[in-house]
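Handout, page 2. Input:
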Amino acid sequence: MATTTNYGWTTPDDTALVKDGASAIRTLGSSVDTTTKNLNPETTLGDIAYRSSTANVNTRLGLGTAGQVLQVNSGANAPEWATPSSGSMTSLASGTLSGASVTISAISGSYIDLLLVITNRIHATANQSAAIRLNGDSTTNYTTSVAYGNDSAAGITTPDATFIRTGGNAQTTGTSYSIEEIKLYNYANTSIRKICQINAYTSATSATIRNSIGFYKSDLAITSITILAESGNLTSGNYILYGVK
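Output:
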C-alpha cells in the first residue's frame, strides 16, 4: 500500500483494486483524526501547542496566570509561563549575627546585583566596626573609601585592607537601631573587578551616618559573603541578602 509523504497515511496504490471503499475511507479518516489531534493537543481556551521531542506530535502548554510572560525554560528546550522578575528583589538568605563572623555561601549567580541589609548590630567589644569579606578572601585585596561621614571617618581611605568596612562603631548593650545597606554591583561578572556602595547608620554613643565605596580587587564571581566584626565578636543583629534583577 502507498503512504503519504509527511504523515504516512495509508492509501491505495494506483494499481490496487479497491474492493471495500468504506473501509479504506475509515482507515484514512482515522489516520487523519489521530494526526490532527497530535498536532492540536489544546483542550482549554488560551492553551498553546509546541513541537514535542516526537516528530508530528505537539505538546500542550496550558494558559498561564494573569501577568505572567512566556519564556524559555532553564533547559532551553521548551516554552513556559513565568512571572516577570525584571526590577525585582528576591530574598536569598537571612539570619542572625553572632560570633566572630557569619558566612552566606552558595550565592546564586542568577541576578544582576546583590543587596545586603544588616540591622540592629551589637558587638561584644566597644568601638568596633562591621565589615564584609568576599569569597572567603582574607588577603589585602580590599579598599574602603568613606565619601561622607558625620564623624572623623569622612574622607578616609583604607587601602589594601583585608575587608570592606560597612558601618561605624556599634553599641555593646541596649537596643541598637543600626542599619547598613551594601549594594554589590555585577557580582557574577567574571571580567570586571567588584565595587559596592554602602549606606550606614549606627547608634553607639553618638549616631553616625556614613556613605562609603568598597572595592574588591578580583574579577571572580561572588559566591559567598562573610559578615564580621572588625575585632572581637558580634553578639546580636540580623541580615538579609537580596538578589536584584
